[in-house]
Amino acid sequence: MKISDVTCHVLVADDFDPGLTSSAQDSLLVVVTTDDGVQGYGESDLNPWIGRTCIEAPGTHTMGLGMRELLIGRDPREIESIWNDIYTFTAMNGRRGAVIHALGAVEMALWDIAGKIAGKPVWQLLGTHRDSPVVPYASLQPAGKTFEAYRDALCASAENAKELGFRAVKAECTLAGPFAHDGMDESFDRHTDVVAAVREAIGPEITLMVDVQYLWRDADTAYATVRDWDEYDIYFLETPIWPDFLDEHAKLASRVSFPIASGEWLSTRWEFVELIERGGIGVVQPDVGRVGGISEAKAVCEMAAESGLPVVPHCWKTGISLSATAHLAFVTPGIRFIEYLPPQLCIEKLRRELATEDLEFENGEILPPEKPGLGVDINWDAVKAYGQT
After folding, report:
1. Mean pLDDT within 33-47
2. What are phi and psi of 375, to 5 degrees?
């Protein structure tokens, strides 16, 4: 069996708003096809035009070969060997960043093929089923252009998640900073007001995580706001400081009682070494596509376990990435929660329409998928409707 084709689909929802801070409005869908007609699906969270180019661009020399040309003719089951060759022979194109993010989508598709060939769900190929359940958290969706509208939308989303049976939620609390919702510029104290309102909405039993999306550049400024957040019993504070400022990460982590979470933008296990060793990180957050694929995410999880750190993977795309993350979680005890948005909580069209995953949400847990591969069905009408040239 050989890889005969690699096709990249750039998808953008027809209600796309470039002013919003949500990468779920677009997607890079990678389809790897074998000469026997088996297809594997992968996805990654990056600008889809850039991702497509990373895969389709021809090479010009042995240190900068093309990813697609390195795939054609290979046995798709040789996942580790293929990954290492692409990493090595595209090295001058990028050992980090977009090239690795795109490679993550390819690797995801290879695992999908491997599972389909074996007639098993991917998690059964990855390792032993964990004893503890896989618990998802709901990412709460903000809306509105005023503080009151933003706060009330988050609280309504939190209440919906609670009614659906979620045991954990994450509030995006970003009313200022570089990635503020819809250009808002509220005071830092307003962020505390939002966290307090969401905690009141969900009550004391639901786990609360807070994401401020790189709101601050230094620990002192961050601490001036979050020093009083102990009373809201947050499980972690996600990305409070720009990811390159690792000493500031560590400084903030040493002053607060709750863990600092980060890692969503990082690629390869090697970038996580510094985050873990220098950044004072308390919760590790690889994104399966961006980090370089399922195997690379698994390696990061093993690094985190060696350091005694829990993992809560980032996942902000469609059912393809969600499925890959869930399969990883079913063999990884150190993954405490996974990010999950059912259709009832989604506002983005691609989340609702692109893919149907083989995941059942029951009693606050996700049950093990049973279909071969990733267990994902693609809605090709959506691919046609939202495809870009």
Report:
1. 98
2. 75, 30
pLDDT digits (tens, 9 = 90+) for 255-310: 999 999 999 999 999 999 999 999 999 999 999 999 999 999 999 999 999 999 99
**What's the average model confidence in pLDDT over 330-359?**
91
The percent of residues above 70 in pLDDT, for the chain, comes to 100
Q: How far apart (Å, rounded) are the C-alpha atoms in residues 195 and 201?
A: 10
- Token pair recorded at residue 321: 């990435």
3-class DSSP state of 301: helix
Asked if 365 and 135 touch (Cβ cutoff 8 Å), the reply is yes
How big is the chain by its Cα radius of gyration, in Å? 20
CA distances 304 to 166, 228, 298, 377, Å, are 25, 28, 10, 32
Contact between 138 and 166 under an 8 Å Cβ cutoff? The reply is: yes
Q: How does strand 39-44 pair with strand 3-12?
A: unpaired
Residue whose tokens read 């093309």: 66
Report domain extents, the chain: 3-119, 125-380
- Kindly report the average pLDDT of the chain as a whole number: 96
Same fold, 3-119 and 125-380: no
**Structure letter (DSSP) for residue 369:** P
CATH code of domain 3-119 = 3.30.390.10
CATH topology classification for 125-380: TIM Barrel (3.20.20)
- Residues, the chain: 389
Phi, psi of 121 (to 5 degrees): -65, 150
Q: Give CA–CA dist 325/336, Å, rounded.
A: 12
Round to whole Å and give the CA distance between 262 and 154: 22
Going from the C-alpha of 196 to that of each of 103, 143, 191, 232, 337, the distances in angstroms are 40, 18, 9, 7, 22
Measure Cα distances from 330 to 115, 235, 312, 372 in Å: 15, 21, 13, 15
Helices (H), 39-78: 48-56, 67-71
CA distances from 138 to 89, 190, 363 (A): 39, 22, 14
Angle at 213 between CA 209 and CA 219, to 5 degrees: 90
Among 74, 201, 137, residue whose Cα is nearest residue 364: 137
Locus of tokens 């961050």: 222
**Helix, strand, coil % over all residues of the chain, rounded to 5:** 40, 20, 40
